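[Q] Does anyone have a clean structure-token version of this?
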Amino acid sequence: PFHRLLEAQLQDQRREHEEEVEALKNQVDAMKEELEKQQQAFLQTLQLSPEAQVEFGLQQEITRLTNENLDLKELLEKLEKNEKKLKKQLKIYMKKVQDFEASQAAVPAEGRRHERNMQAAVQRKEKDFQGMLEYYKEDEPLLIRNLIT
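[A] Here you go.
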């Protein structure tokens, strides 16, 4: 049984290796085709007049910029989608903070006074820092409340 298990594993590895080799061969073939196309285009460009070479170069640059522009549009769409998601999360957190503040309204005035003093100290302290903020997950509601107020 152990011998058969090893043999089966070896066959699986051999099959995976053969698939990888096949994929790499296909990739090499595609690269060869692309290289041949580029070489033909280069040779054709050399045969053109100087004006036609400039026009061809401009056409190539326009194509490259168009593709880059499409990639940037796709990235922009992803970022806008992420922004909408984050705005929704912010609304949820703001609601949680409001609910928490409403529940804190029942806390005695002395406790609230101490909380305000602590909050003011935190605000003064935060003004000295700029950039990324590291915090513990359990401190998130307090952090959000302080940021909003």
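[Q] Thanks! Anything notable?
[A] The CA atoms of residues 8 and 14 lie 10 Å apart.
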